[in-house]
Amino acid sequence: xxxxxxxxxxxxxxxxxxxxxxxxxxxxxxxxxxxxxxxxxxxxxxxxxxxxxxxxxxxxxxxxxxxxxxxxxxxxxxxxxxxxxxxxxxxxxxxxxxxxxxxxxxxxxxxxxxxxxxxxxxxxxxxxxxxxxxxxxxxxxxxxxxxxxxxxxxxxxxxxxxxxxxxxxxxxxxxxxxxxxxxxxxxxxxxxxxxxxxxxxxxxxxxxxxxxxxxxxxxxxxxxxxxxxxxxxxxxxxxxxxxxxxxxxxxxxxxxxxxxxxxxxxxxxxxxxxxxxxxxxxxxxxxxxxxxxxxxxxxxxxxxxxxxxxxxxxxxxxxxxxxxxxxxxxxxxxxxxxxxxxxxxxxxxxxxxxxxxxxxxxxxxxxxxxxxxxxxxxxxxxxxxxxxxx
Length: 390
Prior knowledge:
single chain; 390 residues; alpha+beta; Endonuclease III, domain 1; 2 domains; 4-stranded antiparallel beta sheet; 3-stranded mixed beta sheet; 39% helix
């Protein structure tokens, strides 16, 4: 984020040469995996690796809104949003969130429901609650001034080692290495590391040591963003783009290394009611949709508004409004949406939390679940639109 003079770009290998390296150095799939061994610092050449990565980042980095600011608060918001959420999804919500809560003080004063409404669609809503809680802590106990060091940032609710290092390095230039999933994958590949006899915890410690040694002391924020960008766009979990990598001549695995298998996704079918009626306010020509608030005791998405759950997933085809796919954590849902009349909304649905008939013009600003927002958008019922009501 900070302004700095880039080192000269290192000599680039011709693509034919790079392709030869990739082909000749592919490790044998039948080779036995031994214990993890550290890579000698002298053998890697830290200055050369830093120079290569920063030059690549200058030329190839994506233009993302949080890279145009040095405001610690804005950087903090982006880092929290980006946890376990795709960049493409975050961009729109990030811009809207900062328009509504442009300062830490504005976030601290906001109601939880307002914050959750702007977070809708990002998932993992505990992040939003902790973000607001931390903002309130800073305003109440630190005179509204965010801590500058990673050690102090760790004292705030919802901020872990990765987020603290990211904020401190990008906003304040602290020499603190970040280690997220992308960085971990990149470092394991260039060093040729796999979990050995000592297990994953020992490997994690080695990764952290390597990251600390490798981070550029002159430009730690840009370096951290560069290595995360490399993992997100080139050193991919599957089908890594080795020919595009600035570290291809040094990498020991060229993308061929064992990784822990992902937990298998589960599949479930569920059904929700889409009940829309003519507005009951005098002289109102608008429509209202029936929403239900998830109980505060729910472990997932407590306090958010959703469409009422149907008692039965099987119903006549002529009452099927749509079928949508929706993923929450490790579950892929096939969601059947049934058109339900007002008089049938109680007998056909599962009794749950508070229910409310909400004018369509107000629904979009509520703290909706991602699924509810997706369904209402596809039915053209958000932003006051009445198209498709029936």
